[in-house]
Amino acid sequence: xxxxxxxxxxxxxxxxxxxxxxxxxxxxxxxxxxxxxxxxxxxxxxxxxxxxxxxxxxxxxxxxxxxxxxxxxxxxxxxxxxxxxxxxxxxxxxxxxxxxxxxxxxxxxxxxxxxxxxxxxxxxxxxxxxxxxxxxxxxxxxxxxxxxxxxxxxxxxxxxxxxxxxxxxxxxxxxxxxxxxxxxxxxxxxxxxxxxxxxxxxxxxxxxxxxxxxxxxxxxxxxxxxxxxxxxxxxxxxxxxxxxxxxxxxxxxxxxxxxxxxxxxxxxxxxxxxxxxxxxxxxxxxxxxxxxxxxxxxxxxxxxxxxxxxxxxxxxxxxxxxxxxxxxxxxxxxxxxxxxxxxxxxxxxxxxxxxxxxxxxxxxxx
Length: 366
Description:
Elements (H helix, E strand, L loop, with lengths): L12 E6 L3 E5 L12 E5 L3 H9 L5 E4 L1 E3 L2 H12 L2 E2 L4 E3 L12 E5 L8 E5 L15 H8 L1 E7 H4 L5 H14 L3 E5 L4 H4 L4 H13 L4 E5 H8 L15 H14 L5 E11 L2 E10 L3 E4 L3 E5 L6 H14 L4 H15 L11 H8 L9
Parallel strand pairs: 1-4, 1-10, 2-8, 4-6, 5-7, 10-11, 11-12, 12-13
Antiparallel strand pairs: 2-3, 8-9, 13-14, 14-15, 14-16
Helix pairs in contact: 1-10, 3-5, 10-11, 11-12
């Protein structure tokens, strides 16, 4: 499989993500409802990919988003900068004093353990990112003058408000005009869509976007809820299905989206909050279906961001000219490692990812 990528030397950025960056408030091993203190992280489905590509894989990345110009916004800015992601494309919105008109998004997330599942409570209504407009960013300057090799966005950003899908479409159309590869993580979140039309509305929005995507990522439930495709014979235990079932679904997607170059599916079977079966598949017209190493009974510390880390590992491998079967291994290994540490974002190193791809175990390194 060959992706047509812009030359690195003609681009300022290897990858740019478009999406909301929220402040995650984490009660650690406890519960949100009983917490007396929280640890703070930055996170966001689209941003996490840029952060992983920067901090783990050493690529040049930036995020297009909007933040309120107050102390919380600048806390987020510092966290993003610590992750190695360029903030020069952030739109800063004046603060109204109490957040009546605009605010920075918050995400309270507890990790779960054993029979108690992870729980997230977002507080992001009227956030700065949800009020972004297509004209807020000079897309021609970004993709034409500065140059970007890879644009990543997703269904979380597209579902934030009535207008954010239009922002995503404007960015993707400009990216495609300038030869930038576009990836999109379907990332269906029922809480985003429940009050505005549910899966029917999600499918309407994502169908508008899907024709602009080169690399589409999601789990089987994402493809069903966000686009209306299904794996024949699917049940709650998706990893029990043969790979051919997913190949048939991805072939259906590609039939309707002739521009699609890669489809990728993460596979997760939940034994408990702290033990999951974890795997991934990828497909291209040239390669057909390829499958990553299946990791059953994987121990989980914090599952949030595992799929985003899969996406960044996959993108890194494709950006650096690796084959699809290798790329899906990088994605699955990076996702597995990301779930061994707290927070939304990866703390893994490239050396650790490559060691896991080669089959390294968890012995102490001295």
